[in-house]
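Data availability (excerpt). The following record was deposited with the supplementary files.
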Amino acid sequence: MEIKINKKKKALVTGGTGFVAGWIIKKLVEAGVNVHATVRDPSDKNKVGHLLELSQNGPGSVTLFQADLLEAGSFNAAVEGCSFVFHTASPFILKFNDPQRDLIDPALKGTQNILEAVSSSDSVERVVLTSSCVAIYGDADECAFVPNNMLNESIWNTTSSAFHQPYSYSKTVAEKEAWKIAEAQEKWSLVVINPSLVLGPTVSGKSTSASHDICLQMGDGTMKAGAPPFEIGMVDVRDVADAHIRAAYIPDASGRHIVSNESCTPLKLSKMLQGEFEQYPLPNKELPKWLVWLVGPIMDKSMTRKMIAKNMGHSWKADNSKSKEKLGIEYRSLKSSIIEMFQQMIDEGSFKKS
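Predicted structure:
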């Protein structure tokens, strides 16, 4: 499905140094769009150098703006003159000290602050929000109780909290707030992308997401004794970026969109890598759930026994038909995604050969 991108209209991408944001910016610049990108520190060349390089290579351009998710008014300058806003900025971290401070507040208040700036602007036509499949479900065992045992866009996560699956909770409250704000006005429309676990190479060449942590554990020996029996949806970052852009420029795009290629496990990912990277200590078997339940919380305090019980050993399925039919997404293979991701992490020096 071909889409028409209006090169004359500017677009804002929040969280410009992020995993998904990098590919959205790259695709827009290559299409000739002038992009505003918000970052924490525009002077930090180590973080923003790849965005400046994209701008130099054109044909579009990137203009950097400093913004803070928790600071009201900090997005106003970046929004000015933009017709489309891609709000990707939200923490995705596995290790944190205070879930309210580190995850929930930035996700919720960041969404409120960006949409307040959007509503005060006269130029914005559409906002595309990066939500997540975890705003649809809280734990994998819930898949057994939904229609056809398959997640769909009509379902909302009702089981996560600040104390159980706080990242999932942060994405849920942020998306709900976005819909509440959008439905209270008529100046701009909201379209939401709900990706599963995002894999693939980064535009910057550097690891920027918690999904890289999972890949790291497969290659650095952490999972050498075996991989956890954890099944989840996975998707290539370039497909996620494509979904965002299509959601912005397809006039009748609306609502939520599950963007997920297929369900997979760390062991399946490992088998995709083994033929290419035999010199790394990749896992070749799956650990029994009882063992993960017993030792997991000791090895990693963020891995609670409740989380293990409700997510490991359960099948995960989601209906991605809307993303194909309404956005025209054609998913690339997960094998190519994980191989490119792993190779980039080797090039970056993330782990050494055993």
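Summary of structural features: The chain has one domain: 10-348.
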